From TrEMBL:
Span of domain Beta-lactamase-related: 22-409
Name this polypeptide is given: Serine hydrolase domain-containing protein
MF (Gene Ontology): hydrolase activity
Gene3D superfamilies named in the record: DD-peptidase/beta-lactamase superfamily (3.40.710.10)
Coiled coil: none
InterPro entries per record: Beta-lactam-related, Beta-lactam/transpept-like, Diverse_Enzym_Activities
Highest classification ranks of the organism: Bacteria, Bacillati, Actinomycetota, Actinomycetes, Micromonosporales
Organism of provenance: Dactylosporangium maewongense
Keyword Cell cycle attached: no
Tagged with keyword Hydrolase: yes
Length: 417
């Protein structure tokens, strides 16, 4: 599905000349080789005001980025899974304070890393069970193996969980494997990026009685018309040419270099449906998802009633800061990588939330919520400005270039009302 502008930028308070300058700025990323190509969507008041592309979805094949290009959105899957969980919460299927061991018994007696090495770790029992809200806020103590900042993530790698999940393991088995590993900290006492949302996806499966993929398809993708969002692309199908190639910076030149060692997995049906990082989507599809959130839970795009996925009160609740004591991430973060800065930023139920834009020295509005993906994709939703923005490219890791702060700087500079 392609995406095109629906309204002139000036009609919704955006300077078209400055948007053109924004495109020129990021075109230089392609022209000097830092990125292969990109796609940008800016919507205001629920209507697309700017949709642009530049460069190549596949440099080697000479295929340009098109409006319907398929992108690995990686951790931009997390807000989708969080919405799925909160849909079940709205049905009264669980409380946010419930221990997850009620549905996932493998987490009945978690251990917490205390000291020692990866070959001889010493653990202590958790004094607090992992609760549903811990998964939604990344305060569970679960981590990622690829972070390489602690003994615990070394234990994840030792167990076969690095950048990719262990070969052939489904979500149920992965959840059992993670439960057998020590937590990075006592639940609710820190903030650590990790597999919390994948475990949340497993919770969705058990509570709903459906696979995560079936739940997302029937309850979110189909109502929103997200026909292109999926877990993989058929290598023999027509869509394979729509899939952007994956790149990393060359150690020698810094230029985007093809990385099929990881990129090829998008062409294989995964054994594990990763609610934390497994989805492939298009700009048009994800704009439908962010527009639903901006409209506080409804699928309507034209003022009609539409289908309601979430209550407006639930969306507002999800996008408040839920960190213990209402503090910033900077106070609770454990030093590992995350798809966000920490200063002035809180965390809600599935999203980072701007508390104060000044400490990060990046323009925004308090209450803006957002996330990004490992291949440098990113989105944000600013309810006060009635604004949604999403940027797509395929460069690992997302910390390579200051794309996100520059994007905010240029977008907010273009608002005129």
């Amino acid at each position: 599905m392609s995406i095109e502008p629906e309204v002139a930028p000036g009609q919704v308070g955006i300077d078209a000349k400055r948007l053109a300058g924004l495109d020129e700025h990021f075109a230089r990323y392609v022209d000097d080789g830092r990125l292969a190509g990109w796609q940008l969507v800016v919507s205001r008041d629920g209507r697309v005001a700017h949709a642009s592309t530049y460069g190549w979805r596949d440099m080697e094949a000479g295929l340009p980025v098109e409006p319907d290009t398929l992108w690995r959105i990686y951790s931009m899957s997390k807000p989708v899974t969080s919405v799925a969980a909160m849909m079940l919460w709205e049905e009264g299927r669980f409380e946010l304070t419930d221990p997850i061991s009620r549905w996932l018994p493998e987490f009945a007696a978690p251990q917490v890393y205390d000291r020692g090495s990866a070959s001889a770790p010493f653990t202590v029992p958790a004094v607090e069970p992992i609760r549903v809200w811990h998964l939604l806020t990344h305060t569970s103590g679960l981590t990622y193996g690829f972070l390489q900042t602690s003994v615990v993530d070394a234990l994840y790698r030792k167990a076969g969980y690095d950048v990719l999940a262990k070969t052939g393991v489904d979500l149920a088995q992965a959840s059992r494997d993670w439960a057998a590993l020590p937590l990075l900290f006592q639940p609710g006492t820190g903030w650590g990026y990790g597999v919390s949302t994948d475990v949340l996806g497993r919770l969705v499966e058990v509570v709903s009685g459906q696979s995560l993929g079936d739940f997302l398809r029937t309850r979110i993708f189909e109502p929103l018309g997200m026909a292109d969002t999926r877990w993989s692309v058929d290598p023999d199908g027509d869509d394979a040419k729509r899939l952007a190639a994956l790149y990393v910076p060359s150690p020698a030149s810094g230029k985007a270099t093809r990385f099929d060692a990881i990129g090829k997995y998008a062409l294989e049906e995964p054994a594990m449906q990763s609610g934390g990082g497994g989805l492939i989507s298009t700009a048009a599809d994800y704009d439908r998802f962010t527009a639903m959130l901006l409209r506080e839970g409804t699928t309507s795009r034209d003022g009609t009633a539409g289908e309601r996925l979430l209550s407006s009160r639930t969306v507002r609740f999800m996008t408040r800061n839920h960190l213990p004591g209402g503090v910033d991430l900077d106070r609770l973060q454990t030093g590992g990588f995350a798809e966000t800065t920490f200063e002035g930023i809180g965390f809600g139920l599935g999203f980072a939330v701007v508390r104060d834009p000044v400490p990060a020295r990046t323009p925004s509005t308090p209450g803006t919520y957002y996330w990004g993906g490992a291949a440098s994709t990113a989105f944000w939703i600013d309810p006060a400005e009635r604004l949604t923005v999403a940027f797509y490219t395929q460069l690992l890791p997302s910390s390579t270039h200051p794309i996100r702060p520059q994007l905010r700087q240029l977008i907010y500079s273009a608002l005129t009302d």
